[in-house]
Design a protein that fits this description.
mainly alpha; about 0% strand; Stage V sporulation protein AEB
Protein backbone atom coordinates (compact mmCIF):
# COMPACT_ATOMS: atom_id res chain seq x y z
CA UNK A 1 0.00 0.00 0.00
CA UNK A 2 2.80 2.44 0.82
CA UNK A 3 4.52 1.61 -2.46
CA UNK A 4 1.37 2.63 -4.34
CA UNK A 5 1.35 6.02 -2.59
CA UNK A 6 5.08 6.42 -3.17
CA UNK A 7 4.87 5.80 -6.93
CA UNK A 8 1.80 8.01 -7.27
CA UNK A 9 3.74 10.79 -5.57
CA UNK A 10 6.84 10.24 -7.70
CA UNK A 11 5.04 10.06 -11.05
CA UNK A 12 2.71 12.97 -10.28
CA UNK A 13 5.69 14.95 -9.03
CA UNK A 14 7.65 14.22 -12.21
CA UNK A 15 4.78 15.48 -14.34
CA UNK A 16 4.65 18.65 -12.24
CA UNK A 17 8.44 19.07 -12.50
CA UNK A 18 8.16 18.88 -16.29
CA UNK A 19 5.50 21.60 -16.20
CA UNK A 20 7.61 23.76 -13.89
CA UNK A 21 10.65 23.37 -16.14
CA UNK A 22 8.55 24.47 -19.10
CA UNK A 23 7.66 27.60 -17.11
CA UNK A 24 11.15 28.37 -15.83
CA UNK A 25 13.58 27.13 -18.47
CA UNK A 26 11.55 27.36 -21.67
CA UNK A 27 9.80 30.56 -20.45
CA UNK A 28 6.44 29.30 -21.70
CA UNK A 29 3.19 30.87 -20.56
CA UNK A 30 0.80 28.86 -18.38
CA UNK A 31 -1.51 28.37 -21.36
CA UNK A 32 1.26 27.00 -23.54
CA UNK A 33 2.51 24.74 -20.77
CA UNK A 34 -0.93 23.31 -20.05
CA UNK A 35 -1.54 22.76 -23.76
CA UNK A 36 1.77 20.93 -24.13
CA UNK A 37 0.98 18.68 -21.17
CA UNK A 38 -2.49 17.88 -22.55
CA UNK A 39 -1.00 17.07 -25.95
CA UNK A 40 1.68 14.91 -24.30
CA UNK A 41 -1.02 12.93 -22.51
CA UNK A 42 -2.94 12.55 -25.77
CA UNK A 43 0.15 11.33 -27.63
CA UNK A 44 0.98 8.83 -24.88
CA UNK A 45 -2.59 7.50 -25.04
CA UNK A 46 -2.38 7.33 -28.83
CA UNK A 47 0.59 4.99 -28.49
CA UNK A 48 -1.15 3.03 -25.67
CA UNK A 49 1.45 4.16 -23.13
CA UNK A 50 -0.73 6.17 -20.75
CA UNK A 51 -2.90 3.31 -19.48
CA UNK A 52 0.12 1.34 -18.20
CA UNK A 53 1.26 4.54 -16.47
CA UNK A 54 -2.15 4.85 -14.80
CA UNK A 55 -2.01 1.20 -13.74
CA UNK A 56 1.43 1.78 -12.23
CA UNK A 57 1.00 5.22 -10.64
CA UNK A 58 -2.76 5.50 -10.05
CA UNK A 59 -3.68 9.03 -8.99
CA UNK A 60 -0.17 10.21 -9.82
CA UNK A 61 -1.11 9.85 -13.48
CA UNK A 62 -4.85 10.56 -13.36
CA UNK A 63 -4.82 13.84 -11.41
CA UNK A 64 -2.39 15.99 -13.49
CA UNK A 65 -3.55 17.79 -16.63
CA UNK A 66 -1.97 15.12 -18.84
CA UNK A 67 -4.89 12.84 -18.01
CA UNK A 68 -7.24 15.25 -19.80
CA UNK A 69 -5.43 14.56 -23.07
CA UNK A 70 -5.54 10.89 -22.22
CA UNK A 71 -9.30 11.05 -21.67
CA UNK A 72 -9.90 12.91 -24.94
CA UNK A 73 -8.03 10.38 -27.07
CA UNK A 74 -9.30 7.39 -25.12
CA UNK A 75 -12.93 8.46 -25.57
CA UNK A 76 -12.42 9.29 -29.24
CA UNK A 77 -10.79 5.94 -30.00
CA UNK A 78 -13.39 3.99 -28.03
CA UNK A 79 -16.35 5.64 -29.76
CA UNK A 80 -14.68 5.52 -33.18
CA UNK A 81 -14.61 1.73 -32.94
CA UNK A 82 -18.36 1.65 -32.34
CA UNK A 83 -19.69 4.57 -34.39
CA UNK A 84 -17.02 5.41 -36.96
CA UNK A 85 -15.90 8.94 -37.71
CA UNK A 86 -18.77 10.65 -35.89
CA UNK A 87 -17.78 8.70 -32.77
CA UNK A 88 -14.45 10.52 -32.67
CA UNK A 89 -16.21 13.80 -31.91
CA UNK A 90 -18.91 12.45 -29.62
CA UNK A 91 -16.46 10.24 -27.73
CA UNK A 92 -14.30 13.17 -26.67
CA UNK A 93 -17.29 15.00 -25.22
CA UNK A 94 -18.83 11.94 -23.63
CA UNK A 95 -15.76 11.03 -21.58
CA UNK A 96 -14.77 14.54 -20.51
CA UNK A 97 -18.20 16.10 -19.96
CA UNK A 98 -18.41 15.30 -16.23
CA UNK A 99 -15.03 16.90 -15.48
CA UNK A 100 -15.71 19.99 -17.54
CA UNK A 101 -19.20 20.40 -16.08
CA UNK A 102 -17.97 20.07 -12.51
CA UNK A 103 -15.18 22.59 -13.14
CA UNK A 104 -17.70 25.11 -14.43
CA UNK A 105 -20.15 24.52 -11.56
CA UNK A 106 -17.51 24.71 -8.82
CA UNK A 107 -15.93 27.81 -10.37
CA UNK A 108 -19.34 29.48 -10.40
CA UNK A 109 -20.00 28.53 -6.77
CA UNK A 110 -16.55 29.80 -5.80
CA UNK A 111 -17.23 33.10 -7.56
CA UNK A 112 -20.51 33.45 -5.65
CA UNK A 113 -18.96 32.70 -2.25
CA UNK A 114 -15.69 34.62 -2.52
CA UNK A 115 -15.12 38.20 -3.62
CA UNK A 116 -12.74 38.28 -6.61
CA UNK A 117 -9.92 40.80 -6.52
CA UNK A 118 -9.65 43.32 -9.30
Amino acid sequence: MLAMFFWAFVVGGCICVIGQLLFDVAKLTPGHTMSLLVVAGAILEGFNLYEPLVDFAGAGATIPITSFGNALVHGAMQEAEQHGVIGVITGMFEVTSAGISSAIIFAFIGALIFKPKS
